[in-house]
Each structure stands twice: as C-alpha cells, then as structure tokens.
Amino acid sequence: MVDAQLIRRGIRDERVLAAMSEIPREEFVPTEARVTAYTDAPVGIGSGQTISQPYMTALMAQCLKLTGEEQVLEVGAGSGYAAAVLGRLAREVITVEIVPELAVLARENLRRTGFDANVQVVDGDGGWGYSAGAPYDAISVAAAAPEVPAALLEQLRDPGYLAIPVGTLEDQELRVLRKRWGRIQSRTATLCRFVPLRGGEGWR
Ligand code: SAH
User: pTM of the predicted model, to two decimals?
Assistant: First the structure.
C-alpha cells in the first residue's frame, strides 16, 4: 500500500509514510471487509459511512505539515483510522463524530490497537468545531462541505493549516487553507469525493 498507493503518487513526508506502515488498517474495517482493507478505495464501516482511501488519509496528513508538537482537530472520526495516523504525527488529537455508533466504534478500534493514548473521540457535530480544545494547530475534515465552516477557521491557530473537501455532494476539491499573520491562503491539493458533512454549516 505504501509503495504502490502513496509513494508513487507523491506522498513524501517520511513521518506520514512511517505512520501508515505502522498502523494496522485491517483493524479499523469491519471483519467481513478485512480482505479489502488495503485496496485503493474507501471501505464501508456501517451507518452509510466509509473509512477514507489510504491515499486521501496520507495526503491530508501530509498537507497539515505536522512535526509532533501540534494540537489537532479531526472532524469525522468514522473508524478512528485517520485519527490514529494523526495521533502518530502530532502531540494530541481530538476527533469529533456525529454518529454515536461510529464514535463508539472509533473509540473501540483505537483502544484495541493501542493508539488511544493521545487521541480523544468526542460525540457531536464537528461542523461547529470543538471549542473546548481550541485553538488547533491543524484541522482535518473527513467529510465534504459546501463551504469552509467559519467556526473551524476561527478555531484554527495562527499559524495553522486546515484541510477540507469543499464542493457539491458529487464532486469536491481538497482545499488546504493556511492561516498566517492574520490572513488565510487557500490552495487546491486534488479533486476528490467524500461523504457529506452533516449538521453544522454542511448539508442538512
Ligand atoms: N476519518 C474517518 C473517515 C470517516 S468518513 C476514518 O478514517 O475512518 C466521515 C465521517 O464524518 C463519518 O463517520 C460521518 O459520520 C462523519 N461526519 C459527518 N458529518 C459530521 C459532523 N458534522 N460532525 C462530525 N462528524 C461528522
């Protein structure tokens, strides 16, 4: 997976590659889907949701330029896999999940695999961020929104990075926003298709 799906497509951050090699992705997919755990695609995890394609998890992590010191917010814990990856790259991760059963699943997966020491799963609508843990050096949003939610930009530290898929329900671009000296710069990393962000300022 790391060679064929990540390195060949331009993932260069050694810490991201090491984290993705280390974390057992098969532990984060349903038992019956284990054979597909390392395929180049999202995999269903129940409640109509998916664990993101490995490349997308790696690309988002790389775009956040983590060094190990950061306080990170993830919106959309799902299986907990991306949170485990971020947890290896940053000091602390808070991941918010709107579907209660998935919050339970993420917690169980993180605990069973031992990646829960610096990762906290919070129930709630992450479209409003999670102000109790703010400000965040980096924010990763695992579900697509029509616009960048203002609350997330407010809770982003200066300097800080925010990665989020923005677009329509069918078709989005992965935007990477950088807050620095009070200004926001935005670039598009790639085209993508994520599950929709619910509640908050997403689609209802
Ligand atoms: N990071 C996950 C991918 C999960 S897919 C992983 O590695 O497995 C996106 C997740 O976002 C889904 O679990 C969905 O329930 C959740 N979600 C959607 N809207 C949300 C919101 N407003 N707040 C928090 N989570 C949300």
Answer: 0.98
